[in-house]
Amino acid sequence: LVIGPGTSIGHDAVGDSAALETLGRRGGFRVRIVEPVLHRGSPVRSSTIRAALQEGRVRDAAAMLGRPFALSGPVTSGNRRGRELGFPTANLALPRDTALPSNGVYAAWAAVGGVRHAAAASVGVRPTFGGGPQDERIVEAFLLDFQGDLYGQTMRLEFVERLRDEERFPSADALARQMSRDIEAASRALEQTAPARGRRRRE
Asked: Considering 55, 136, 140, 158, which one is annotated as catalytic?
């Protein structure tokens, strides 16, 4: 049995680590106490990771997880708004209860078919096109070096850096101009993190 130093069980939490070790000797099992992993001086817990994601702090989440926070799912068809703006995006189909980073735009790596692509990913409700706080949140990504059809394929998105908050723009043209800037920012952020674009690797 592997536990943390503050583990307790039973009524009124009377089953502390010492009690569990006693039970282990009687029951023939070993109890191992593992010290917590710390991040910035505080123990890493699932609640602190969720809080980091809710605030868009994907770098902190990655430091606590030991890997980038990632989402995986099949690519599904959307309303083609991105294509109309000149930036076709791949929409991820995800369960409704999936933990997501806060709404905004992120630099990300998108892995499809064993190939990793630089990407600008968006999480949110598309407020420029009438989306509101009560609408279903959408995860979509523009792959910087890809042309083709991804529908039905499984894509894994690794979130690397938050670029900006989600915004409502006065026009589709204004949004398209910002998307160009987002793509440039994503490219710069990803140049510092890993392999060359389009490099094939085992996922």
From this structure: 140
Helix/strand/coil percentages in the chain, nearest 5: 30, 30, 40
What is the rounded CA–CA span in Å between residue 155 and residue 71? 8
- Is 167 a catalytic site residue? no
Cβ–Cβ < 8 Å for 5, 36: yes
Per the confidence metrics, is the pTM higher than 0.85?
no
Structure token pair of residue 50: 């969720």
44 falls within a domain: no
Instruction: Give average pLDDT by consecutive 10-residue segment, the chain, 203 residues.
Output: 83 82 91 89 91 96 96 86 78 93 97 94 87 80 90 95 94 92 96 58 45
Number of domains in the chain: 2
Q: Based on the domain organization, do 122 and 29 belong to the same domain?
A: no
Write the CB contacts of 189 (distance below 8 Å, at least 6 apart in sequence): 107, 160, 161, 163
